[in-house]
Design brief:
462 residues, alpha/beta, Rossmann fold, TIM Barrel, 2 domains, six-stranded parallel beta sheet, five-stranded parallel beta sheet, 14 helices, globular
Amino acid sequence: MARPAFPHIPWSAPQGREPGPRVLGINPWITDFAAFNVWSRPAGLLACLDMLRSAGASVALLDCLAPTWEAAPDLGLKWPKPGKYGTGHYPKEEIEPPAPLAFMDRRYSRYGLPRDRVIEALAALDPAPDAVLVTTIMTYWYPGALDILDICAELWPDAPRFLGGTYATLCGDHAARHTDAHLQQGPLEGPENWSRFWELIDFDIPQQADKDGLSLALDLYADPAYSIVLGSRGCPFACEYCASNALYPRFRQSGAEAVMVGIRSEYERGVRDFAFYDDALLVNPDRWLWPVLDGLAASDMAPRLHTPNAMHVRHLTVDVCERLKAAGLTTVRLGLETTDFDHRHDVKLTREQWKAGARNLLNAGFNLDDIGVYILFGLPGQDLGNVEEAVQHVRAYGFRPHLAHYTPIPGSPMFETACAASPYPLKDEPLFQNNSIWPCVPGGFNWDEAKRWKLLLHGERG
């Protein structure tokens, strides 16, 4: 019995103009020891597809991490039931780890849609693409991107292939050696990148309709369980462990009207959960955030808002917390890093600011279960006793502590320090940048320590 055909991947043409080139965007599989969907969307790729469509291209999306086709039950695709507010597990297939990671005593998997079904979907794409744009979210997830690029090369050998995103931008030398694709380093809206893209696909260079990359082609998801909100790109701060400035050198903010239009459009499609993707959500809130929050509070919509990227605690004034609560903020994530307030690696936060922010959240009506606090774990040279103290400190407030495992990222100010502290060749092989191996913790990952930390997070002693 022949198995059901994969659904057709639709092309989305530009409105009001003759379609130009066909550009297929692909978000590849995650390859890792663990992965969990916390409102994941490839924001950079969606920005590129929106810009290209506005400039005249027809675009299509294959997201290997999204159950876009689960609505067709006869496909035989099993996707875990969404968890709280649309988050949840990915389907996975255990695979052999890459040779550099074979020493790890952990299972390694490919997360997302089944590989053979992805190949079928791509092979059925008609008409074929004139160009393929593949993104990378984490540097050490590049095996999935290289795999999908090889598949595309076999299917459409004459179509130019582009590799963009974090890996291509921050690990360019490694990417150039390991893939037969044009590297798209940095934002597409940059004038050099924009011109180069159109020249390489042999089309006339159109004028850009969006030079900020803040409009996203979210409509390419047929039946989304959640959506994302992007009111800014980049970050005005320069935390030592972060590479945001290397990825987006300029901090750009949207206007409130454009953000509200995007939320309204997704809400009318049935979406109720929205995750803010901004690195600096509470900076210059008059620019767009206040009008959006106030507009939501006064509207006929009742969205649930989430902040998976930590908010800066020092900005959590009484007014800020009340606006967030009134607009529907449901999942609160804060960045504490450490309770050693005199020796911090991020934006300066005083003990008084931390206490005030925590108090203001509770006074605004947020429940303790709503509030999670990220504590950095595994920094080079870090005293893990301080991490344990921070966990206990957060639990004393009634909040839920979460360990934010340190990822040594090329382009971040701390990367050289990480390279000196790690026994692994972080510069030469991005696979060793994986925070699952605890790359800068003496002795690396081990199950006994992982269990002990899990017990501590839940208020137990191992």
